[in-house]
Amino acid sequence: MTMKIFAVALLALALTACESSTENGNNSNENKPATTSPAPATPAANSSPAATPASSPAASMQLKAGDKVKVTLNGSSNEATVVSVDEKAGKATVKIQGQKEDKTVALSAVSKQ
To answer: Cys-Cys crosslink for 93: which of 21, 24, 53, 83, Cβ 3.0 to 4.6 Å?
Structure first.
Protein backbone atom coordinates (compact mmCIF):
# COMPACT_ATOMS: atom_id res chain seq x y z
CA MET A 1 0.00 0.00 0.00
CA THR A 2 2.84 2.37 0.82
CA MET A 3 4.43 1.62 -2.55
CA LYS A 4 1.20 2.57 -4.37
CA ILE A 5 0.98 5.89 -2.54
CA PHE A 6 4.65 6.55 -3.23
CA ALA A 7 4.18 5.69 -6.93
CA VAL A 8 1.16 8.01 -7.27
CA ALA A 9 3.03 10.85 -5.52
CA LEU A 10 6.05 10.33 -7.78
CA LEU A 11 3.85 10.29 -10.88
CA ALA A 12 2.10 13.49 -9.80
CA LEU A 13 5.44 15.15 -9.12
CA ALA A 14 6.77 14.09 -12.53
CA LEU A 15 3.69 15.44 -14.32
CA THR A 16 3.93 18.71 -12.45
CA ALA A 17 7.60 19.04 -13.32
CA CYS A 18 6.89 18.41 -17.00
CA GLU A 19 4.10 20.97 -17.13
CA SER A 20 6.08 23.73 -15.45
CA SER A 21 9.17 23.21 -17.60
CA THR A 22 7.07 23.37 -20.78
CA GLU A 23 5.55 26.67 -19.72
CA ASN A 24 8.93 28.07 -18.70
CA GLY A 25 10.49 26.79 -21.92
CA ASN A 26 7.86 28.57 -24.00
CA ASN A 27 8.21 31.79 -22.03
CA SER A 28 11.99 31.75 -22.24
CA ASN A 29 11.91 30.96 -25.96
CA GLU A 30 9.43 33.73 -26.62
CA ASN A 31 11.60 36.21 -24.74
CA LYS A 32 14.90 35.21 -26.34
CA PRO A 33 14.12 36.22 -29.94
CA ALA A 34 12.59 39.47 -28.77
CA THR A 35 15.66 40.40 -26.75
CA THR A 36 18.30 38.99 -29.09
CA SER A 37 16.87 40.21 -32.39
CA PRO A 38 17.39 43.94 -31.83
CA ALA A 39 20.77 43.50 -30.15
CA PRO A 40 22.55 41.63 -33.01
CA ALA A 41 20.79 43.67 -35.68
CA THR A 42 22.51 46.88 -34.60
CA PRO A 43 26.06 45.51 -34.33
CA ALA A 44 25.60 43.37 -37.43
CA ALA A 45 24.74 46.43 -39.47
CA ASN A 46 27.83 48.23 -38.17
CA SER A 47 30.24 45.30 -38.25
CA SER A 48 28.96 43.54 -41.36
CA PRO A 49 31.32 45.22 -43.84
CA ALA A 50 34.28 44.73 -41.50
CA ALA A 51 33.31 41.18 -40.47
CA THR A 52 32.75 39.80 -43.97
CA PRO A 53 36.36 40.01 -45.18
CA ALA A 54 37.76 39.06 -41.78
CA SER A 55 35.51 36.04 -41.34
CA SER A 56 36.21 34.58 -44.78
CA PRO A 57 39.64 35.46 -46.11
CA ALA A 58 39.08 33.16 -49.08
CA ALA A 59 36.21 35.39 -50.20
CA SER A 60 38.62 38.30 -50.57
CA MET A 61 40.61 36.25 -53.11
CA GLN A 62 37.73 36.48 -55.62
CA LEU A 63 37.85 32.91 -56.83
CA LYS A 64 36.33 32.15 -60.21
CA ALA A 65 35.85 29.11 -62.39
CA GLY A 66 39.08 27.89 -63.95
CA ASP A 67 41.40 29.19 -61.21
CA LYS A 68 44.21 26.85 -60.15
CA VAL A 69 44.07 26.42 -56.37
CA LYS A 70 45.29 24.26 -53.52
CA VAL A 71 42.61 22.53 -51.46
CA THR A 72 43.10 21.14 -47.97
CA LEU A 73 41.22 17.86 -47.58
CA ASN A 74 41.71 15.45 -44.69
CA GLY A 75 44.84 17.28 -43.60
CA SER A 76 46.61 17.09 -46.96
CA SER A 77 46.97 19.77 -49.61
CA ASN A 78 45.87 18.87 -53.15
CA GLU A 79 46.09 20.82 -56.39
CA ALA A 80 42.71 21.50 -57.97
CA THR A 81 40.81 23.64 -60.45
CA VAL A 82 37.77 25.68 -59.41
CA VAL A 83 34.57 24.57 -61.15
CA SER A 84 32.16 26.98 -59.43
CA VAL A 85 31.94 29.27 -56.39
CA ASP A 86 28.95 29.88 -54.11
CA GLU A 87 29.92 32.90 -51.99
CA LYS A 88 26.59 33.00 -50.16
CA ALA A 89 27.07 29.45 -48.88
CA GLY A 90 30.83 29.92 -48.48
CA LYS A 91 31.62 26.88 -50.63
CA ALA A 92 33.47 26.12 -53.83
CA THR A 93 33.21 23.13 -56.15
CA VAL A 94 36.64 21.99 -57.29
CA LYS A 95 38.06 19.30 -59.56
CA ILE A 96 41.02 17.70 -57.78
CA GLN A 97 43.78 16.47 -60.06
CA GLY A 98 43.80 12.69 -60.28
CA GLN A 99 40.17 12.30 -59.17
CA LYS A 100 37.13 11.81 -61.36
CA GLU A 101 34.50 13.49 -59.21
CA ASP A 102 34.14 17.16 -58.28
CA LYS A 103 34.30 18.02 -54.57
CA THR A 104 32.44 20.77 -52.74
CA VAL A 105 34.64 22.35 -50.06
CA ALA A 106 34.51 25.36 -47.76
CA LEU A 107 36.14 28.53 -49.08
CA SER A 108 38.43 28.50 -46.04
CA ALA A 109 39.98 25.24 -47.33
CA VAL A 110 40.86 26.82 -50.68
CA SER A 111 43.94 28.93 -51.39
CA LYS A 112 45.24 30.32 -54.67
CA GLN A 113 48.53 28.98 -55.99
So the answer is: 83
Q: Which of 11, 36, 55 is the last residue of a domain?
A: 55
Name residue 8's amino acid.
V
Q: Domain count of the chain? A: 2
Range of the domain at 37: 2-55
**Contact of 71 with 109, CB cutoff 8 Å:** yes
What average pLDDT is seen over the chain?
Answer: 73
Q: How far apart are CA 93 and CA 79, in angstroms?
A: 13
- For residue 73, the 8-state DSSP code is E
Tell me the three state secondary structure of residue 34: helix
The CB-side HSE value for 48 (13 A sphere, CA atoms) comes to 7
The whole-model pTM stands at 0.46
pLDDT digits (tens, 9 = 90+) for 79-93: 999 999 998 999 999
Choose between 53 and 7: higher pLDDT.
Answer: 7
